[in-house]
Amino acid sequence: MAGVTGVFAADAALLGFARALRAAGVDASAERVHAFLCAVDVLRPGLRADVYWAGRLTLCGDRDDLERYERVFASCFGGGEPAGHAVPAAPAPRLRLLVGDAGAEGRTRARGERDAPPAPSLASSTEVLRHRDFAGLDAVEREQVRRLLAALALRGAVRRSARRRPARRGEVDPHRTVRELLRRGGEPALPRRHARTNRPRRVVLLVDVSGSMAPYADALLRFTHAAAHTRGTEVFTIGTRLTRVTREMSHRDPDLAMTAVAAAVPDWRGGTRLGELLRAFLDRWGQRGMARGAIVVVLSDGWERGDPELLAAQMRRLHRLAHRVIWTNPRKARPGYAPLAAGMAAALPSVDAFVEGHSLAALERLAAVVRGADDA
Amino acid sequence: MDGPEQVRARLEATGYLVDDGLAVACFLALRLGWPLFCEGDAGVGKTALASALAEALDAPLIRLQCHEGIDASQALYDWDFPRQLLHLRAAEAAGVTDSDLLEGQLYDRRFLIARPLLRALETQPSVLLVDEIDRADDEFEAFLLELLSEYSVTVPELGTLRAEVPPVVVLTSNRTREVHDALKRRCLYHWFDHPDFARELAIVRRRLPQVSARLAEQVTALVQALRAQDLLKPPGVAETIDWAEALDTLGAGEVSAELAVATLGSVLKYREDAERARGLDFAAVLATRGA
Fold it and tell me: The whole model's pTM is what?
């Protein structure tokens, strides 16, 4: 393949464009840039439209990238004709290693300290910590809870898969049986059998990061991080908009992951429009298959700013798609709690399990419920 | 083919209309031999692209429909065990005693059943459609990744089978789950949008030449209006064509609001959507396009 040929200046412009794309959050890796240069090479590099399409086809890998691509392309190669749909106002540039700890948690910590009852510090505090409300933890305890959370893993209840594996009983496995026969030169042998395997169901987590959830958001997101390390788990944040953070959550290091999530989520501590965002999730992901047969966990206090009727309708829809819908409400544990928030009341009829989510013990129980234990 | 324009012309000759981006995508896929990764809503023509490409290139279309649990023996090759056994018995009856020879014969190419992927490697030229890759598991993706980078397959008993001319590969995904970056990175990525009115009308006219111009125009206008509604499943181009065909089958030269409502079932597949669509003023939409 022809690599970097032709005028250096032109290639420099293309490379600069790729760098700008990376800065805007598109994963334009070296391999992709190489493909981009190859593509431009076989097209007519003078033509703006060809450069546009060559870049879009090679550098983008996701629908979410396209919007950023339009923006960066316009700023690098000038306006020209408006390429396709209108681009919304540019989001703030990604912050790295700044927002996460100082921002998201700093806030919650400040609130936490204010709310904390004057609890005596205990030497062997793990057991106590397990049952303490996240909202009332101080900084040291928070750190400890984080470490404990990291050990939690979330695996969905099992379902039968299409795959088979050797087993003592089950259908006859022609492959292995014939192989066995061949090994014996065609003499009769015992039939080998195989059976279907079980696979964990996909788990989809919808984490509310609105203002009313601020004391819990950090702990819940960390729980989500620990949970998201099981394959096939998907994570979204909901607040004033829906953000998919599965990719950000994939950092192994929880702190790095939290920083990435903090940078990706534009709506910390905003209001909640659960109904609308649930619909956005179902339209774009859920109905296509992500929620089908999955275990969907909503982590929210159910404070709905929008129309509860819409939320009820979308919850019914979700309930029809998903295998199980689990709602985790950290406020459920408060003495005298009743699901009176309009959103919560609207959602409850379509929920299979309604669990607490305020403490480590509660999250452990949540993990058990997701795994299929019947204690709703 | 020399450039995107030529690719476009060839594809349009088969009845598949492409826009600028897709023309460039197909050209690059053909020229550089990269797989084309197609994403977009259902019914926007992702799968149809593969058959159009096959027709344009005059090559067979080999289709692999992915599903959960698909593995190499369903996608790549399998040994024909009953025939092997039969051969063994026949050899025994004929009194063959040379076991090495027999063993060698058993793993002959004629006992190998080529599944779609191997068939695509062996057929030159060919168009390979890997449909709904998002339904397969990620192990299968890794396997596909290896195949697409080498265009060769190693059968332990036979050795390596390599494609002299790599097939044109089209992968489609409905985005039910994220396909691994490593796979996407080796592909050209194209997002399919719903077409605008003029393009969609042209597609309907091309696919259904027997339908009257007026009916095609009205149906397209209605579908575009439906898409602007807040539906669970906005209709794709495939549904537009279905609807026009349904109305044509009913002998309608044009659509009235009543007829549109009566045949809504060929476009909208959810009760909620049908209810919401009733709120749409069909007569008004038809009036704007009707004159």
Answer: 0.74
